[in-house]
Amino acid sequence: MYQETCIKALEQAGAVESKQHLLRWFHKVARNRAIDILRARGENVMQLSDQTLAILEEDWDSRENSRRADLIDALSRCLDVLTPRSREMMSLRYFQDRSGVEIAGMTGTKVTSVYQTIARVHKALAECLREQPEYQS
């Protein structure tokens, strides 16, 4: 069921407006597919009302948004403890979408040094995030 839903999502990729849209769509497709499977087995399907499903979906969205905000806060705290050079490398790479070659040219460092720095920062951020209470939940 999960694989079928993922395939349907890939087939509809052009119609997806946002991550929220995709999540809502995915929930509906998965729910409908699960009901189809139960019906095919001859099992009695008790379905929730559209109103109940809308309430659940709203709750899922609010929980997702809350969790995302908590993780962003945790990541922000972890980024704050990086050295200025490391923060600059991450900013160039992820906020300005620069390649390692471009970053090397802009900072006057070797390309291999850029990639090594980014790898070390990834590791440091992962360790920092694991220590954050928001990441634990």
TrEMBL record:
Record GO biological process: DNA-templated transcription initiation
Q: Quick check: keyword Methyltransferase in the entry?
A: no
Task: Please list the GO terms describing molecular function.
Answer: DNA binding; sigma factor activity
Q: Which residues form the RNA polymerase sigma factor 70 region 4 type domain?
A: 73-124
Keyword line: Sigma factor, Transcription, Transcription regulation
Q: Which InterPro entries match?
A: RNA_pol_sigma-70-like (IPR039425), RNA_pol_sigma-70_dom (IPR014284), RNA_pol_sigma70_r4_t2 (IPR013249), RNA_pol_sigma_r2 (IPR013325), RNA_pol_sigma_r3/r4-like (IPR013324), WH-like_DNA-bd_sf (IPR036388)
Q: Which domain of life is it from?
A: Bacteria
> Which Pfam family, any one of them, does this sequence belong to?
Sigma70_r4_2
Q: Which PANTHER family match?
A: RNA POLYMERASE ECF-TYPE SIGMA FACTO, RNA POLYMERASE SIGMA FACTOR
Q: Which NCBIfam families match?
A: sigma70-ECF (TIGR02937)
Please give the family membership noted in the entry: Belongs to the sigma-70 factor family. ECF subfamily.
Q: What's the protein here called?
A: RNA polymerase sigma factor SigV
Species, as recorded: Rubripirellula reticaptiva
Tell me what gene encodes this: sigV
